[in-house]
Amino acid sequence: MQRFLSAILFLATLFLSGCYTVPETGRSSLMMVGADEEARLGATEFANMRSTQPVSRDPAANARVQRIGRRIANVVGSDLPSAQWEFVVFDGPTTVNAFVLPGGKVGVYTGLLNLCENDAEVAAVIGHEIAHVTARHGAERMSQSMLAGMLAVGAQVASENSSNRDMWRLAYGGAATLTILAYSRSHESEADYIGIRYAAKAGYDPRAAISFWQKMAAANPQAGGNAGKVNTWISTHPSNAQRIADLQAAMPAVLPLYEAAKPRFQ
Known about the structure:
Layout: H1 2-17, E1 19-21, E2 28-30, H2 35-52, H3 59-76, E3 86-90, E4 98-101, E5 105-109, H4 110-115, H5 119-134, H6 137-158, H7 165-201, H8 208-219, H9 221-224, H10 229-234, H11 240-261
Parallel strand pairs: 3-5
Antiparallel strand pairs: 1-2, 4-5
Helix pairs in contact: 1-6, 3-5, 5-7, 5-8, 6-7, 7-11, 8-11
């Protein structure tokens, strides 16, 4: 038991000394990964993806993503001061997706560009991806995994003299898994909110995020319909319906940012 209490004290100290404040929301998050190391890993992985996946040679698609991406990056500013921005279009007509890697590496697939009817919808997606980086969601997930591993050691020690050892370990494992999944959903929701704020500050209508997700829901009804409580709980992403509702609720706070920025981009 003494070993267990010592481990808990160590983890509490680590938690208090390793917090990060998320831009735009002010949320405090556990952070046990250095920003420089995070950016180095992102740059390495992005270079690998560029060498193994086809990059689009469409000049219009590339110019579109560069224009929108740079405009949003300019308003991010101090939220990610050390970013080395790269915006790359990957050739994937059937891939409706975009991604981000630490350090400011953004990839957009041509399938997503084909789905977006206007630049504002593209801006909503790129803003969402950039928000994952400024909020350091990847490093936070890594930190959660590190903490879960440490807690597993603590659970092992605490259960050594327990007659219900197997039940203890099963309960711990289930709780840890569901907690990490919940964090994944909250990260997506947070990136949605921060992303539309970035898009709005860059002069793009944030309501385009709603129309984008409405199209995604129509294209993938099984992913965003009326998911039951169990399915929603074990999902790593919010349902499309929930995302749309959350975005609609955020508009009164975000639209003034768009109205203030719009004259600079007309």
